[in-house]
Amino acid sequence: MKKWLNVLEKNKRLQATVIGMYIATTFISLYLAQKSVVAFLLLLSSLLFLYFTSFSNRVKWVIGILVLSVLLPLAASQGEAYQSYMEVATLVGIYIAMALGLNIVVGLAGLLDLGFVAFFAIGAYTYGIFATAQANNFMPFGHYPLSGESFWIFLIIGCIVAAIFGVLLGIPVLRVKGDYLAIVTLGFGEIIRIIFNNLDKPVNITNGAMGLASVQPPKLFGIEFMYPSQFYYVVLVILLLTIFIVRRLEYSKIGRAWKAVRENEIAAQAMGIPLVRTKLMAFAVGASFSGMMGVVFAAKQTFVDPTSFTLLESITILVMVILGGMGSVPGVILGAALVTILNLQVLTELTNWLNQLSLSGVVHIPDALSPAKMQRFIFGLILIVFALYRPQGLLPAKNPRFDEKELKSGVTNVADGKEGAKGVYFNG
Amino acid sequence: MIEHVLQTLPQVIIDGLALGAVYAIVALGYTMVYGILELINFAHGEIFMTGAFVGTALLLSFSAFGWLSSMPMLLALLLVLVATSIVTGLLGMGIERIAYRPLRNAPKLITLITAIGISFLLQDFVRFITELKKGNYILTGPSLFTGQVNISASSIWSGFHDASVKSSFFIVLVTAVVMMVTLDFFVNKTKWGMAMRAVAQDRETAALMSVNVNKVIALTFFIGSALGGATGVLFAIQYGTIDPYIGFILGLKAFTAAVLGGIGNIRGAMFGGIVLGLLEMFAAANLPIVSDGILGAEYKDVFAFSILIIVLIFKPEGLFGKVSVEKV
Question: May I have one GO cellular component term (chain A) (predicted)?
Fold first, then answer.
């Protein structure tokens, strides 16, 4: 087995054949067997294998985008389960973007934020209020609901509003550190939820616990985005953009400042890093991703209410980051995908299966034990096991290694040096 | 408006004292662990919750066996309190052994994450067992000490309204005071208490002075968790209905109380708990009136968290804490 893997590692052409065959097989099996969730998941996992191949980054990206934008929707579109597959894929995308946002705060800057879902809620309500008749209650001008075309502007607005709240939270938080920070953010998350839950009086802004119903779906060139299969592409584009931004940020000046602050605040300060600005920046950037995804979430669900934004959601996103590996972008993507699929597909499928078994009288599983209710248990277990035995996560973060000689010899200019370093990062 | 606030004041004070006593004892658990390990034991709220469930289960089985009617109520309560505190104390020690000790030299972030994991695990474990046994995870205990006592506050000053209390209030208050006084005595006057204070001051030096640090830490967890579990029983008796998710918010507020009193300071935590309980009840009773119905009683949690945030910003060392300076 190991020998084969070694051969595979060295031979690029063999890798191409294997991955090509893998994608083709899973594609055909999903195309033919529409109801097979396994085939769907296997096709998705081809991206993971792609990550481990030794192609250049550009090739990986091209194949990855091809699989996600053409092959996956095409293979899934042949049966009735199409929309439910796309729904799962869309939610996976939303959670990946959020987990990447939290990864900046927790993984890069080392600030444990337990109220992250608050920013998601802020984004969702920002769009939800103005895309329903709700805004008529307190806005002196304008006619609401705004049309679906405003969705695209609200993506930006959601970002900005969430970032502002991120800074607002950040300012008091800067004076506390470490474990206090976790508690304060936890409190903040609860405060935001309670406020949204009760902001129906004196002026009805959020409609309280009833939530906002029939949010306008987005519109582009007269096409209304109603179905998950359409949202899938919106999320995909935003996600690709997010990944691009996150990767650029990671190696930028601010990204390195975040890592320095994470390792040692006092030392970082001594090296001339402005502590306040760096931390605020982490909060703002992390929050803005979450806020943007909140807008998408509101438009996709067409319904916003406070119960979607509980502490459990915050912890779920944290589990994604811890599982994948703090600070590691590919790791967090993997972690988010795994947790979301576990939540949406595996647990529900397992519950259905067990229900069928107990209906047919094979075994009797008490309702209390049904896997769909075991989320907290599973998440708790993941957190403990990973913190104890693998704190670096499934795909640990790697720092780029620079070849000192190459840099000093001046053969390559700075830009090339950067490219080379990235290659090292990817190819291990 | 002020008239109304004054009228309800006696009732507010009584309810606030009951809640404050609960906060105070749970806060002790946070503050003791923080004093020794500089770690926020997130799972402490869950230990409190487990205590409430264990205690209620014991009381329910007592009444199922018909023991409740055959022995004096107070004796039954005492038995349940002792049994529960031993169970939760051992639970706390186990958590420390499994989840915190291997990580004692790891970054704080990692320890916090295991603590959150433990608390989720406990929540679901308790939910699972209760649901399996009862079919529903919301548990209502046998009603004990339900006699109403009227306190005629209006005879003190005519501006007050009379207050009424369940007789369990006195049980809660007396037990809480006894527990706090005993703990205070234990920490300040006994040899083990001295060892605990020594470890809190400087772990390495204490170890050099032949203090068994691991034992002291385990003992701290045992005492903190036992107190937390016993408080859970008191909470269940006072408020009747419990569910597996009461621990998190209550733990958060108890932590607020600990911070308010100066984290690491045992007497401060007691004081902070009482103050927070009074403030919260005061807010719950008066926020809607003072703000003309704009802010409902639901905002009492927001109020408590705002206190936490304000204290952390302006006086992070708390009311009685010492300022600590971090050195490189």
Answer: plasma membrane
